[in-house]
Specification:
Radius of gyration: 18 Å
Helix content: over 70%
Structural class: mainly alpha
Order of helices and strands: HHHHHH
Number of helices: 6
Largest sheet: none
Distance between the termini: 57 Å
Amino acid sequence: MYLTIKALHIIFIVTWFAGMFYIVRLFVYFTEAQEMEEPRRSILQDQYRIMMKRLWFGITWPSAVLTLIFGPWMVFLLGSIPVWLWIKLAFVLGLYLYFFFLHGIYKDLQAGVIKRSSTQLRVWNEVATIFLVAIVFLVVLKSFLSTVWALAGLALFTAALMMAIKVYKNIREKKK
C-alpha cells in the first residue's frame, strides 16, 4: 500500500509543478499582450484567461490537493518522521505559500489587473525551481547538508538565469 500511495504522491507532485511552471508562463504572455494594439490584445488576453482557468482549476489545484492528501498518508504509513522529512515539510510549506501567491496573481489577471511586469513574472517563475531542487535533493539524499550545497549551486544558476533574463529583455527591447 505504501508504494502505491508514494507513486500517486509523485504523480501529483509532477503535475502540480508542471501547472505552476506553465501558469507563470501564461502570466508572462498575458502581461506582454497588454502592450499590443487592439484587437490583438483582447483576443490574446481572452484566450490566455481561458487557458489559465483550465490549467489552474483543471490540473494545478487538483494536483496540489491530491499531493496534500497522499503526502500525509505516506507519513502515516511510514509511522515516524525523520529529521530530513521535517526539513522537507518546511520546504513544502514554502511551496504552498508560493502556490497561494500565484493564485493571487491568477485572480488579478483574470480581473484584468496587471501588477507585475513580464520580467518580474519571469523571475517568479524560477521560485518553483528552487523548491523543486531543494525537495528532490532532500528526498533522495536525506541530508540537509547536501541540500545546502545543492541550493548554493542553484543560487549560482539562478543568478546566471537572472542575468540571462536581463539580456533577453534588452535584446527584445532593441528589436522594438
